[in-house]
Write a structure and sequence with these properties.
The structure is a homodimer of 394-residue chains. By secondary structure, the first copy, chain A, is of the alpha+beta class. Chain A contains 11 helices and 15 strands. Chain A has 2 domains: 255 residues, L-amino peptidase D-ALA esterase/amidase (4-Layer Sandwich); 120 residues, Ubiquitin-like (UB roll). In chain A, helix 2 links the parallel strand 3 and strand 4. In chain A, helix 1 crosses helix 2, helix 2 runs parallel beside helix 3 and helix 5 packs across helix 6.
């Protein structure tokens, strides 16, 4: 496997006993130099303790480390939960010899159970002991819940004759309909930039990636996306041309991670890009794409590999946007299935059926009302989604 | 079975070949006297031909008959679809000897396939031939799609020493998240009232019943609820006291039908009433109840009989209402599961598990922010829901 770590960052993941079967559930990111940091967090009104803590700490714009656990969301856990989040940061800070304020915290897993903070504290010295430049896969494993594979994307870019790296790790795989952030996603880079510039670039990238996906329409209480920049590449993002170069690489990493989250969505067998074109505004395009991408009837039809376009039109029709159904074209891949609001017949359906058997494809809905468009990535809705979520806590 | 028909109405249902296995798919309601009529229809922007036709015809406020088919929604079928809907009405009008304008039409089934109008026209004479005062069960069977049982509710009331009857038939069982109307629901009564009064009472009843249910969050293109009043009881609804008496019976019929639709929702094994209390406004209470009732993660947990209240709180948190999580109480039946935003522990969970095994129960979310409340009925989300909808057209 190609080298995936980001220069100047050490990472690690261990099992501390929160998850069953000795699976990794505690992860660490440590920056050798002080890093600028920016974050976006869930807009759910119910927010986990680590989210509340990070929101405070991130205002300083600097960060040395992140400690994260899976197997327990530390959400709806009251004052005790906040104490536990702070103890988590404190134990990492003590072991790493950094200031407590410069350690961020994240958690994911079951909501409403007390966080077994003792187990975490006992495991921190061992965690710190094994951190290394190439530990990112262990970190990615340590944040998995119902994910079937760890997710790491690393890309390099060039600026002023020097190379920079952007390495992102993320986890899904249910309660995914991000609203300004998604689930857990941590991005490390070795460029140097102000916290404000980082925030601007992170928000832009998230709006093109993590905010354009849905697995099941449920927004998590723990959504957190963090971008840490430690400057060890010697590249400083000063002007907008430099920012553009970095933004492109950052977008690339986040879009790849976002698509991966959907591909590995709970029970998912298909990755489907819902593209709405010809809308009057981008907002309306997004509203329709989002409604179709979240329609259970559309998603079960995708699972059944059934070109049931009536469900797509019906979902578009309830999105709260003034559409003109008799104008709409719908394509499955390149196959025109609906023209001017009416089906294109058996031959088109036969062609579309072939598209629907593929693991990845797109569906384009052309409203023919304007020139704006939007894309949302979704997955199908399978029997396994129900099985996974009926039995999640058992 | 108790007599379910409504005086002055003849009803019928036959198989005309739209559905497989010779299942009934064509139904008729005929009023012996000219009836006042009111209707509410889907707010989906994509509307089926029969909905468009009825919207025009119902403005006259009078109606003699309704012809309805299942197995095909006659939606997204263009001009041809509108012609077919008109031919459907015309053939019924000709056979019954009434004016074409006084016949309403409804369809339900697959979207986007041409309506086989020839089959319907051929079957109309036979349909008219068998209509009878007690044919309502045949009518209810003829409008079923994925419903497992026909749904008829009949109630009687007293006014001025006379008896009146309200008989409603309805069908579900998927694409159910009504918005001002739901699916197909036809109500016959023998009181006399102006179309305006009927409309007012129908809207009030629908807002307490059909607009308070969800199976899968998808709003249909064919939702239609009609109320026909033929006056043969000799009771005239004149003043508001009389209207109140009738409204109570009408509400009773529609709430019973609405709950039945959920109980027979696609794949449903539970009927769950989501009650939100202590909200600042009724709108906010409804918004939260609706978001919880449509949360796939909540619904799969209900299927798994898992008291996973974190998912309920997470759904409430993303409803777009400014709640204070640390104040919230949640009860499963009478069991307090969450107090002030935190779990009540193992004993409460054990009690709640018993509630969750019941086929019908309620979940109460007390926001403690105000005095308004709202209720939404939902069902669980099962493996069978996915099976039914992955294979719907095959």
């Amino acid at each position: 496997m190609e080298k995936m770590g980001c220069p100047g960052f050490l990472t690690a993941g261990v099992a501390c006993g929160l998850k069953k079967n000795n699976q990794k559930d505690l992860g660490l990111v440590y920056s050798e130099a002080s890093a600028s940091v920016a974050g976006v967090f869930t807009r759910n009104r119910v927010q986990a303790a680590p989210v509340l803590l990070d929101r405070q700490r991130i205002t300083a714009g600097v960060c040395r480390a992140l400690i994260v656990n899976s197997g327990n969301a530390n959400c709806c856990t009251g004052d005790q939960g906040m104490q536990a989040a702070m103890r988590m940061a404190k134990s990492a800070a003590a072991g790493l010899g950094v200031s407590e304020d410069e350690v961020l915290v994240a958690s994911t897993g079951v909501i409403g159970e007390p966080l077994p903070i003792d187990k975490i504290e006992s495991a921190v010295p061992g965690l710190i002991n094994i951190m290394q430049p190439d530990g990112v896969l262990n970190l990615a494993q340590a944040i998995m819940t119902t994910d079937t594979v760890p997710k790491v994307i690393s890309r390099r870019g060039q600026l002023d004759g020097k190379t920079f790296t952007v390495t992102g790790v993320a986890k899904g795989a249910g309660m995914i309909r991000p609203d300004m952030a998604t689930m857990l996603c941590f991005v490390m880079t070795d460029i140097q930039a102000t916290p404000n510039a980082l925030k601007q670039m992170l928000v832009a990238a998230v709006n093109r990636s993590l905010n354009r996906i849905t697995v099941d329409g449920d927004t998590s209480t723990n959504d957190t996306a963090l971008l840490m920049a430690n400057g060890v590449s010697g590249i400083r993002i000063g002007n907008s041309a430099q920012q553009e170069v970095f933004q492109a690489v950052l977008d690339d990493v986040l879009i790849a991670l976002a698509k991966w989250l959907i591909k590995d969505g709970e029970g998912a067998t298909k990755l489907v890009e819902i593209i709405v074109t010809g809308a009057a505004t981008e907002k309306e395009a997004h509203q329709i794409a989002d409604t179709v991408a979240n329609s259970n009837l559309t998603k079960t039809a995708l699972f059944g590999e059934d070109a049931n376009w009536g469900r797509i039109l019906a979902a578009a029709g309830r999105a709260g946007v003034p559409i003109e159904p008799q104008k709409i074209d719908i394509r499955f891949g390149s196959v025109l299935m609906i023209q001017n609001g009416m089906g294109c017949g058996q031959a088109a359906e036969a062609e579309a059926s072939k598209i629907l058997k593929q693991p990845e494809y797109d569906i384009t809905i052309d409203l023919k009302m304007g020139s704006c468009s939007a894309t949302v990535f979704t997955c199908d809705f399978s029997i396994d989604y129900v099985k996974i979520n009926a039995d999640y806590r058992t």
